[in-house]
What we know:
There is one protein chain. It is built from six helices and seven strands; from the N terminus they run E-H-H-H-H-E-E-E-H-E-H-E-E. Strand 6 (130-139) and strand 7 (142-152) form a beta hairpin. It has 155 residues and is α+β, with helices and mostly antiparallel strands.
Amino acid sequence: MNLSQICQKDQLNLKKVYFNSIKSIDENLYSKDQKFAWASQAWENPEFDKSILEGKGWKLSINKNIIGFATRYPENRLSLFYIKGNLKRKGYGSLILDTIEEEALKDGIKKLEVEASLISYRLLLKRNWEIIRKEEVLIKGIIFKRYRMLKILKN
């Protein structure tokens, strides 16, 4: 297992992890149409590429295959956080988040914010993130529920 910083050449493989992670979501949480709209953001939303290319991020690889990643963009926002579907709930996400939070502290960031999905917010709550509010957003004309959250970072 190898945890390393994201670089430009990782972009396509990160999109594959993103797509795989979303595709694997139980349709009781997100419908097929919601998952399609969400997954398409990797190719249609310029903020996705900015987060990878201009943000600070970490990837976790096993046998040189990226299995998960997270980015901060801008620097005080957890903007992307995805683990391959068959590897969720095995501690890999926590390992990546530990690094993201530690690096933010080293960069002088005192709090992180995120718009968390109906899936990731549970993990974030366990890690002492707080819900600011529940909100709804439109992606490709489809309503999504999510949680705006924050975490005060401490040494």
